Amino acid sequence: MAGKFEATVEIDRPVDEVFAFLANGENDPKFSPRVQRMEKTTEGATTVGTVYRSTVKDAGMTTHREFRISEFEPPRRIRWTEISTNLVTAPEGGYDLEPAADGRTRLRVFNVLEGHGLGKLLAGLAVGAARKDADAFAHRIKAAVEAS
Q1: For residues 54 and 37, is the Cβ–Cβ distance under 8 A?
Q2: Strand, helix or coil at 139?
Q3: CA pair distance 135, 6, nearest whole angstrom
Q4: Which of 12, 46, 64, 72 is 20 to 30 A away from residue 40, measured at CA?
């Protein structure tokens, strides 16, 4: 079973600043309490092909995840795909950014979650929890960007 969650928020920063913050995946722990550690495993600036490795805690379980940047179009679009093998993975996720009034940025964040093996039983719960938290998640991104 696969499912998607998404949320949109306006951030009180210009689109270039928001993009730069989000393009650095090592900022994820600043707005995602489930991410315990995040590190870039490839050299150079973030671009298509960059890989990030994370340690996350969901529902009391700690897992290790790897994501590859699949699209990178400054300052408008970032996409990633999970390349690690877990019970529930994110085969696609991303950020869409657009300038808004008064130098603000409109951000849409989304993830597609998919279960594998026994994870097919858990995927519905994961999607439900993610959808319930989606607006709060977007507002945590807003707060982290505005505090940076």
Answers
A1: yes
A2: helix
A3: 8
A4: 12
Amino acid, res. 78: I
- pLDDT tens per residue across span 66-87: 999 999 999 999 999 999 988 8
88-99, strands of its sheet edge to edge: 2-11, 105-115, 88-99, 77-82, 61-73, 51-58, 35-40
Strand partners, 6: 110
Q: Copy the structure tokens of residue 114.
A: 């998919």
Mean pLDDT of 114-129: 85
Tokens 């400054």, located at residue: 74
pLDDT, one tens digit per residue, over 96-121 is 999 999 999 999 999 999 999 888 88
